Amino acid sequence: MSIAALGKAVSVRSLGKSYGTARALDGVSLEIAAGEFCTLLGASGSGKTTLLKSIAGFETYDAGQILVGGADIGPVPVSKRNIGMVFQNYALFPHMSVRRNVAFGLEMRQMPKRDIDDRVSEALSLVDLTAYGERLPRQLSGGQQQRVALARALVIRPDILLMDEPLGALDKNLRQAIQIELKRLHAAVGATVVYVTHDQEEALFLSDRIALMDKGRIVQAGTPRELYDRPANRFVAGFLGECNFIAVDGRQIAVRPEKVCVGSRTDSCDQRLEARVGSVNFIGRGFRVMLERDGIELAALVDASDEIAALRPGATVPLGFMRGDVMDIASA
Ligand SMILES: Nc1ncnc2c1ncn2[C@@H]1O[C@H](COP(=O)(O)OP(=O)(O)OP(=O)(O)O)[C@@H](O)[C@H]1O
Ligand SMILES: [Mg+2]
Fold first, then answer.
1. Phi, psi dihedral angles at 281 (to 5 degrees)
2. Which of 2, 29, 230, 268 sits at a 20 to 30 Å CA gap from 47?
3. Which of 188-202, 236-250, 309-323 has the lowest mean pLDDT?
4. In the Cβ-directed half-sphere of 155, how many Cα atoms lie within 13 Å?
5. Top-level CATH class of 10-235?
6. For position 332, what pLDDT does the model report?
7. How far is 99 from 123, CA to CA, in rounded Å?
8. Domain boundaries defined on the chain
9. Where are the beta strands (DSSP E) in the chain?
10. CB contact at 8 A, 38 and 208
11. SS3 205
12. Atom of ligand 1 at shortest range from CA of 198
């Protein structure tokens, strides 16, 4: 599709930003490759929006540099940065049709009307809203409005597409549907995407790479599998998925709940212990079993079986896992 614009690489170097005494960004460095889908993941207040706004040019920074396609964008005004933005509250113009909403950015750039029409049609087709061009935003569902916001950002053929929790206001099913759409769009337009979320599942699903932020710093950046399977420390292990820390022979070891076996399934495990059953809950794809050992709570996600269903709180059960599934985590 001709809307494709090859994305540009983004290089964030030792970025610092304080609001008064609050340190919002504390020496952030991040390399985002051209065309990459990179997610900034982190708890509320970790600095995600501040970093995104710094790239967009809506926020100044006190220290460091941001390079786009190798050039320092510090001196480049917002209007000259070819960057598309989508926010959580998509803020469409309520009195303008979908087409006019999408056309707005191009009108601001004083593009000839014919070209605008073509581009708008193309952008609407990308987000599957061709039939909705004449509607007003209030005549659309939340998910459709969000897609208009996306079309509005894509229509300018941005080198970089910045999205700040764009699906936060949507219910789970719709969010999943649009996540799939976003993956498809990213493949189609080729822009570099910097996406902000505090939802770890969303980050795992969407991203080529995730940068996990905490207190204005990047704790670890890597592919979803790198962060999940080889977390740099306990914070990463606990933020991305769940993690058990089990005391074995005076040492703390880390194991994901889905790697823990309970009951007769432990026969095939090379590590076996005993634990007390706390609770057993059916969660659809299986059971979530809470266990206790030496005063520490452990979680196990196990396949549904009559044996597990019959477990009663207080009972002692075998608990097992494979040595190869133990994660090597610095305790920092
Ligand atoms: N305009 C501002 N004035 C003062 N402090 C601010 C301002 N904007 C952000 N901060 C502070 O900077 C820190 C980082 O804020 P930021 O908005 O980047 O977090 P975030 O990761 O996007 O959080 P959330 O998930 O809640 O959106 C927070 O401690 C916040 O209180
Ligand atoms: Mg934010």
1. -130, 130
2. 230
3. 236-250
4. 31
5. alpha beta
6. 47
7. 10
8. 10-235, 243-325
9. 10-19, 22-32, 37-42, 63-68, 71-72, 83-86, 160-164, 192-197, 209-214, 217-222, 244-248, 251-255, 261-262, 271-282, 287-293, 296-302, 316-321
10. yes
11. helix
12. 25
50 lines ligand 1 (CB under 6 A): yes
Q: How far is the CA of 44 from the centre of ligand 2 (A)?
A: 7
The domain defined by 243-325 carries CATH number 3.30.70.940: no
For residue range 275-295, what is the model confidence (pLDDT) as tens digits? 999 999 999 999 999 999 988
Residues 6+ away with beta carbon under 8 Å from 78: 56, 57, 58
Q: Decide the pairing of beta strands 22-32 and 37-42.
A: unpaired
Residue-wise pLDDT tens digits, 109-160: 889 999 999 999 999 998 889 999 999 999 999 889 989 999 999 898 899 9
CA atoms of 156 and 139, how far apart (whole Å)? 24
Q: Is the CB–ligand 1 distance for residue 49 below 6 Å?
A: yes
Say yes or no: CB of residue 198 within 6 Å of ligand 1. yes
- Alpha-carbon distance 143 to 137, whole Å? 11
Of 24-33, 46-55, 183-192, the range with the lowest mean pLDDT is: 183-192
**DSSP letter assigned to residue 299:** E
Average pLDDT (70-99) is: 89
